TrEMBL record:
Transmembrane segments: none annotated. One of its GO terms (biological process) is attachment of GPI anchor to protein. Coiled coil: none annotated. It holds the Pfam family Gpi16. It comes from Cardinalis cardinalis. InterPro entries: PIG-T. This is PIGT transamidase.
Length: 239
C-alpha cells in the first residue's frame, strides 16, 4: 500500500525528522518452514497415549523481515506546557483507510491512570477494545483501535486519535520510568574523549534484561578495547 493506506500514511518525512528522536531498524531472521514430526507411544498401564514430537532438524527455511520505526515527540515543551496530542498534531495527517493486504493493523494508546481514583486523561474517539498487560512489573492499560474493524470508519472517513488531560497536571508529577537512561559525551579529542551511558532501574527488587543500542556520532572514533562496564561501583568485564 506504500503511503496510500494503512499506518504508513502517517510517515511524513518532514514531521518525523523534526521530532525529538527517531530511529529506524530492520530485523531479518531465519524461520523454520518445514520440520520433521514423528509419533511417540507411551503407556501408563491402562492408557496408550500418542504424542507428536518435533525433530530438531529443519528441512526448509523462510526469512522473516521486520521493520520498526520509533519516534518521540515532545509536545510539552513545544505546546506551551500542554500535554494534549493527536495524530494530526504529530504527523499532520490522519488515518483514512486500512491497507487491504494487512492481516493486522492496530493503534495502541497507553491510558494507564497514575492515580486509580482520579483518571486524569481521556481518549477519543472511543476505542474498539481495551487491552491490559504487565510491562516491567507494572499493569498497563491500552486503548486499542483496530483498523480492520468495519465500525471504525463508519462514523467518520478519517481516524484522528486524540488524548486530552481533564485538568492541568504539573510536570513534576510525572512518574519516573522503571527503566530510563542518560548519555553524554565527555573529554576532548581522541585521547580523552569518551561516551558515557547511564542506565537506571528504579524497581525496588526486580531485575530486567536490557538490550542497549548505541548510535555513535560520525565524528567520534570508538576503541572497543577501552570499553568498561560498571555496576553498583564494581567493574564487569564485557564478553
Amino acid at each position: 500500500c506504500s503511503l496510500q493506506a494503512g499506518l504508513a500514511v502517517l510517515l511524513k518525512a518532514e514531521r518525523l525528522f523534526h521530532s525529538s528522536y527517531h530511529s529506524q531498524a530492520v530485523h531479518i531472521r531465519p524461520i523454520c518452514r518445514v520440520s520433521i514430526w514423528f509419533a511417540q507411544l507411551s503407556c501408563d498401564g491402562f492408557t496408550v497415549c500418542l504424542s507428536l514430537v518435533q525433530d530438531a532438524s529443519c528441512l526448509a527455511l523462510s526469512w522473516e523481515l521486520r521493520q520498526t520505526l520509533t519516534v518521540v515527540f515532545d509536545f510539552f515543551s513545544s505546546g506551551q506546557g500542554k500535554k494534549d496530542w493527536s495524530l494530526f498534531k504529530m504527523f499532520s495527517r490522519t488515518l483514512t483507510d486500512t491497507c487491504p493486504l494487512a492481516s493486522q493493523s492496530k493503534v495502541y494508546v497507553d491510558i494507564s491512570p497514575k492515580n486509580k481514583e482520579k483518571e486524569l486523561l481521556e481518549v477519543s474517539p472511543p476505542p474498539t477494545s481495551v487491552h491490559e498487560a504487565i510491562v516491567q512489573g507494572d499493569r498497563r492499560t491500552y486503548a486499542v483501535y483496530d483498523l480492520l474493524s468495519p465500525s471504525l470508519f463508519n462514523t467518520s472517513r478519517s481516524l484522528n486519535v486524540q488524548l486530552k488531560w481533564k485538568r492541568p497536571q504539573d510536570s513534576s508529577e510525572m512518574p519516573i520510568p522503571t527503566l530510563h537512561a542518560q548519555r553524554y559525551v565527555g573529554g576532548y579529542g581522541l585521547q580523552t574523549g569518551e561516551i558515557c551511558t547511564l542506565i537506571y532501574n528504579t524497581h525496588p527488587y526486580r531485575a530486567f534484561p536490557v538490550i542497549l543500542l548505541e548510535t555513535v556520532p560520525w565524528y567520534l572514533r570508538l576503541y572497543v578495547h577501552t570499553l568498561t562496564i560498571i555496576t553498583k561501583g564494581k567493574e564487569n568485564k564485557p564478553s
